[in-house]
Write a structure and sequence with these properties.
The complex is a heterodimer of chains A (223) and B (262).
Chain A (H helix, E strand, L loop, with lengths): L7 H4 L2 H35 L2 H15 L3 H11 L9 H26 L3 H9 L4 H31 L11 H12 L2 H30 L7
Chain B lengths: L1 H18 L8 H8 L1 E7 L1 E2 L3 E3 L5 E2 L1 H13 L2 E7 L4 H6 L5 E7 L2 H6 E8 L2 E6 L15 E5 L3 H9 L5 E5 L2 H9 L5 E5 H9 L7 E8 L2 E6 L3 H17 L1 H10 L8
Parallel strand pairs in B: 1-5, 1-6, 9-10, 9-11
Antiparallel strand pairs in B: 2-3, 3-4, 6-13, 7-13, 8-11, 8-12
Classes of the chains: A mainly alpha (223), B alpha/beta (262).
């Protein structure tokens, strides 16, 4: 136990670290918002969409849920340029995160939709709503409310999983940690600080999602 | 590089304790000619300098160099496989007459052994396709350069590249190579051996040397106080450079001609 901590060597690089935190937050905002939107779209398609749409969504969901995120990331970043479709590392990372969260969240949201009582759809129809209107105004919010805790967890998981985007040179929090560690060789201090930052980010994100849930579902206190 | 240096320190300290009494020796060149065999310490874990081929026979730049020198001396070659840690002790304990094992020169090593003229290029530099006009660090402005994070090239390039250059740091050499081949970066900073490994796969984008970052060519190592052997080996290397036989070896294993200033 003779190790002497030296956090000053980490503080010297605080600019790199702050930039890394900023990029991780940017990634999770983009990934979270567009990922859940994609998830809702896919959940609707798989539940009510045309047959060919269901087939495509099922293939997409199974493909993403049965391959590692790192491989998906490499496919987008290193693979697509070969087909003449070149994205920057930030675009690649965002796209991979949206696709990843989209697949997982669509299955979570679909579970919420399936748990909706048949009478709700019939009620919508009897009010003269189309199927899409029924989904939008009657089914969606209660469905989301049911699965909100599970969806929140999935978003946090995707944020933590975003650590691997440093592999394609996105300068996120993990990249900053590896970069600083390769310069000052203070690995223990660096990963100590990084762990605390990820922990704080997860905690904040969870709080934010809980608050958002309370606001979204406030009018629906009675089920 | 760092590891090479570290290992050589271990090797040297081991060598110093082992071989001090054996330093005094007669004319090694005469002994080699008399025995009709040149014992050469070669690597077997360092492609493209020395590795074991599909037929289990050693192959590589250093092996071809060993054969060339033995041929010019008119003797048979006996390859002695070594690791980077034990190559200098092998030399000092007479298990090998000379070391041809991608050996770089540094002051610590120069205290215990002698070095011939350089026979192989070993350097870090910035590489890129022929179309990219870069010849010095200042030209990197506005360009994107891929590098393996924490490597010597990374530290050095971070110092010398202008602030308008974008350095993308990847986890390992494979990431750097993929980024170059997929067009995610314009240039890469890496070792000539890595560039040769890319060239060997015959990619659509060929990495050509743009400028050097750090140069540490390979030398033949031999025991101290062997002026006759040293002169003879230098003569063979100079002749091989002049008649193009060194270029043939270099193009075979490194995919590029020997640099003119080697």
């Amino acid at each position: 136990m003779g190790y002497i901590f030296d956090f000053s060597s980490v503080l010297d690089y605080s600019a790199v670290l702050l930039k890394g935190i900023g990029i991780t937050i940017e990634l999770i905002l983009v990934g979270g918002i567009f990922g859940v939107m994609l998830g809702i779209l896919c959940a609707w398609t798989r539940s009510f969409g045309p047959k060919w749409g269901r087939w495509i969504v099922t293939a997409y969901v199974e493909l993403i849920r049965n391959t590692p995120f790192l491989v998906q990331l490499f496919f987008v970043f290193f693979g697509l340029p070969t087909l003449g479709f070149r994205l920057s590392e930030m675009q690649s990372a965002s796209l991979a995160m949206v696709l990843n969260l989209g697949a997982y969240s669509s299955e979570i949201i679909r579970a919420g939709i399936q748990a909706t009582a048949k009478g709700q759809f019939e009620a919508g129809a009897s009010l003269g709503m189309t199927r899409l209107q029924t989904f939008r105004y009657v089914v969606l919010l209660p469905s989301l409310q049911r699965i909100w805790p599970a969806l929140s967890s999935q978003i946090v998981i995707v944020m933590l999983g975003s650590a691997v985007v440093s592999q394609i040179a996105v300068e996120d929090l993990s990249f900053a940690a590896n970069f600083i560690q390769s310069r000052n060789f203070r690995a223990f201090e660096m990963y100590f600080v990084t762990t605390v930052i990820y922990l704080a980010l997860s905690f904040l994100l969870r709080q934010l999602l809980t608050q958002l849930g309370n606001r979204l579902f406030a009018r629906r206190a009675v089920r | 590089m760092k590891r090479r240096h570290f290992l050589s320190v271990i090797a040297l300290s081991a060598a110093a304790t082992l071989s001090a009494p054996m330093m005094a020796h007669a004319d090694a060149l005469a002994d080699i000619t008399k025995a009709g065999v040149l014992k050469v310490a070669v690597p077997q874990d360092t492609p493209p300098f020395g590795s074991v081929g599909a037929d289990m026979a050693p192959q590589g730049y250093d092996i071809d160099m060993a054969k060339l020198i033995a041929g010019k001396l008119g003797v048979k070659v006996e390859l002695v496989p070594v690791t980077s840690a034990n190559r200098i002790p092998y030399l000092q304990t007479q298990k090998a007459d000379i070391v041809i094992s991608s050996l770089g020169k540094n002051p610590d090593r120069e205290k215990v052994i002698d070095f011939s003229a350089a026979y192989a290029p070993f350097f870090n530099g910035v590489f890129g396709p022929a179309g990219v006009a870069v010849s010095k660090a200042e030209d990197l402005g506005g360009k994107t350069i891929g590098v393996t994070r924490g490597a010597v090239e990374d530290l050095k390039l971070t110092e010398i590249a202008p602030s308008s250059a974008t350095i993308k740091r990847y986890e390992d050499n494979n990431g750097t190579i993929s980024a170059f081949l997929s067009g995610q970066v314009d240039l890469i900073a890496t070792g000539n051996v890595i560039a040769a490994a890319i060239l060997a796969k015959n990619p659509p984008k060929k990495p050509e040397i743009k400028f050097l970052i750090a140069n540490s060519p390979c030398y033949v190592g031999l025991n101290k106080n062997e002026p006759a052997l040293l002169a003879k080996i230098n003569e063979i290397i100079a002749a091989a450079k002049a008649d193009g036989s060194l270029n043939t070896i270099s193009e075979k294993w490194l995919g590029a001609k020997v640099p003119a200033d080697l």
